[in-house]
Specification:
Two copies of one chain form a homodimer. Chain A is mainly α. Helices cover 57% and strands 6% of the residues of chain A. The first copy, chain A, has a three-stranded mixed beta sheet. In chain A, helix 7 runs parallel beside helix 10. The first copy, chain A, is elongated. Chains A, B: InterPro entries: BACK_BPM_SPOP, BPM1-6, BTB/POZ_dom, SKP1/BTB/POZ_sf.
Chain lengths: 207, 207
């Protein structure tokens, strides 16, 4: 099946995303309730199952019977506004118009947790495109902890400059990076060793 | 909410339509069954309600309790392959890749019946763009019976030529047109009267 173009140029663009966005907003025929950070969200089992393999396993598998609109599903370790944007993406395939870097980080973790693949790609691209010395430590820790190789490589490339490295060391996220991901710092040091000192890389990695 | 472009150019296009198409195919969490022309179709109440105001009224209104996966909803006066394409459009916003004129006519009637607005527009445009002397009588009857003014006008314009008119009179659909919509034939005759005979239009319309 494909879209008709040309001769049917008078036909307006797809409204599937708008209709599903309305469905989320109006809660028509909602058969699930979530409790997230003290807030309640209604949703539809079949939409979440269609959009996330993790929700599909949860909602159509063993947990099936225990999930209903009457017995809320509690989501821990996620802020309500992040879950709200995750839900919105699942229904409409779109992200908040002013997706800032911090929100992209939160959404990346959420999308990874529920395997919402395209949202993960959007957020990872957003973070890769907006690496600066303030955010790089946080992004690097995120990439290392959750396994986002493209983001990790982009951070390492950014830090391959003494001035960026120095600024990163003064940033808020540095302490978190050193405590949560000490091995990635070793990896960084090993990368910036002069070529003739490649023999020392092994030493660094064992420190 | 809007789509991100440019910096996230690596992100693949929307997959909402594909995911919902898979949902329809796999029948995951389906909570409705339809019986159409001897065939059975599974579907999801919330998707149909989101996509069709007529289904919304039926499935979330008074009929709500009587519709379930276990008690099939019977759809009369529609062929199974037409209902299948209608369902597919509701989930994916796309029509069969080789939508022929006959199928566009069937789908136009189906989309009108369930108020699937964009499908109606696509089918009406398809019919308007493919008027020929074989199909014009059928399309005109359809336009007149279901109230599609753009299609009716396109047919009338096509028939504003003696050779097209003559060919239409020899076509299979002509008899159906004369029996089902005699008034539109009068309208045609009135249109082709010479300008100086405009006084006779009234006579024709009263014949």
């Amino acid at each position: 099946m494909k879209e008709i173009h040309g001769e049917e140029a008078r036909v307006p663009p797809s409204d599937l995303d708008r209709h599903l966005g309305d469905l989320l907003k109006n809660k028509d025929a909602a058969d699930l309730t979530f409790q997230v950070g003290g807030q309640s969200f209604s949703a539809h089992r079949c939409v979440l199952a269609a959009r996330s393999s993790v929700f599909k396993a949860k909602l159509l598998g063993a947990m099936k019977e225990s999930c209903s609109a009457a017995s809320p599903i509690e989501i821990c370790d996620m802020e309500a506004h992040v879950f709200k944007s995750l839900l919105h993406f699942m229904y409409t395939d779109s992200v908040p118009p002013k997706l800032d870097v911090a929100m992209a980080g939160h959404l990346l973790v959420a999308a990874d947790r529920y395997n919402v693949v395209r949202l993960k790609q959007i957020c990872e691209e957003k973070l890769c495109a907006h690496i600066d010395s303030n955010m790089v430590a946080t992004s690097l820790a995120l990439a290392e902890q959750h396994g986002f190789p493209r983001l990790k490589e982009a951070c390492l490339q950014f830090l391959d400059s003494p001035s960026n490295f120095k600024a990163m060391m003064a940033s808020d996220g540095y302490e978190h990076l050193t405590s949560s991901c000490p091995s990635v710092l070793k990896e960084l040091i090993a990368r910036i060793l002069p070529a003739e000192w490649s023999v020392a890389k092994e030493v660094v990695m064992k420190m």
